[in-house]
Amino acid sequence: MSELFATTGTIAAIATAVVPQQGSVGIVRVSGSQAMAIAQSLFHTPGRQVWESHRILYGYIRHPQTQQIVDEALLLIMKAPRSYTREDVVEFHCHGGIMAVQQVLQLCLENGSRLAQPGEFTLRAFLNGRLDLTQAEGIADLVGAKSPQAAQSALAGLQGKLAHPIRQLRANCLDILAEIEARIDFEEDLPPLDDKAIVSEIDKIAAEITRLLETKDQGELLRTGLKVAIVGRPNVGKSSLLNAWSRSDRAIVTDLPGTTRDVVESQLVVGGIPVQVLDTAGIRETTDQVEKIGVERSRRAANAADLVLLTIDASAGWTEGDEEIYEKVQHRPLILVINKIDLLEESKRTTLQSQIPNSKSKIFTAAAQNQGIDALETAILEIVQSGKVQAADMDLAINQRQAAALTQAKIFLEQVQATITEQLPLDFWTIDLRGAIQALGEITGEEVTESVLERIFSKFCIGK
After folding, report:
1. Cα 416 to Cα 422: distance, rounded to the nearest angstrom
2. Picking from 74-78, 263-267, 271-275, 380-384, which range would have the lowest pLDDT averaged per residue?
3. Residue closest to 215 by CA, chosen among 175, 168, 157, 261
4. CB under 8 Å to 309, separation ≥6 — which residues?
5. Is the separation of the CB atoms in 132 and 163 below 8 Å?
6. Could you tell me which residues come within 8 angstroms of residue 228 by beta carbon, excluding any fewer than 6 positions away?
7. Measuring CA to CA, which residue among 373, 441, 439 is closest to residue 410?
8. What is the pLDDT of residues 323-373, one digit of tens each?
């Protein structure tokens, strides 16, 4: 049994971020049978305050031997089963920073608790029936959400919007299994099994699984964000584009080519989707060793990006250097950004249009004048919604683990249909049907192994 599953005893951990000289409040959370005893030994309340569930007490945390005051604090009491873990839980709300919370945690460890493993509070909530696995994963997603849309999707999982359809699919499979097993056990007492009805029902279940699987890429995009690389020749306005887009001066802007020597990052949110924008060094042949490193990093960033913004200088037209870069990135999801359009005479725009490849999305910007940024964001969202880069304005999105289990369930159901088509005995039907039921149960945790739980909860932070 791994340490993660040593869920007996009372656990304690700091439940808030600890940053020197930042944060007004720090919380130490304790859960387990000794939680109340630990609180009563450490926390001293002036006056006649009532120690009962779901009350907040005011007082002082004292060292039980020396009676030295460690902090002035609040104590929140949540008795089982009305708590996050369905165990007795107390929280010491201390002053923020480092010293107060660390001293209080140390006192808790010295007086009957042990340090919680990563995710152990949520693991106990799952094992005690307060949460299913999809809700637990929703909590992790909510903590790590990078945009309002990602947070909304995580909340949907926390509220059981994924668990409900999964449980319904599993229940439907169990109903089919019961029908088949009834014919095996009581064949003479029941009418013949309707093969076509069974196949039709399995088709419906498989179709719903397919619909859920289609949300995987969208879910990944909401969780991890869209990586966008701005590439192009030196001095075409890549850094100006980043600064205008991020409304900051993240990148140095000069008239000298080769100013950007490394990849500069900025975090944005576009249409609810987190976007990591990479401003790269200008791509060109150079003898400068430092610039060579920057150019090579630019090429790697372009190859690793979900979307490439190939930026050109409208006043210079479509050059041989632009064509060389285009040849290297055209296989990627791509938007052509024709920058410095304010420097191009109106009469020359038609000529420029004829030079630019027609197969790609293109927008016109004057980044130094903060023009064209809205059009750029619209173009990005259009590419996302087209399916070239997956995303959607959605309330529900599965993760990789859930997608793997759904895929396995679908494979089992296809094997059931093949078994029926081949007219094999009913006993063979039940084998793969049970496999589908188990795979669906792994998503919500109704059927789950220790290794799966360890993989999920080890990704949580300590204190959650």
Report:
1. 10
2. 263-267
3. 157
4. 228, 229, 230, 231, 241, 334, 335, 337, 376
5. yes
6. 275, 276, 277, 278, 305, 306, 307, 308, 309, 380
7. 439
8. 888 888 888 888 999 998 888 877 777 778 778 887 668 889 998 888 989
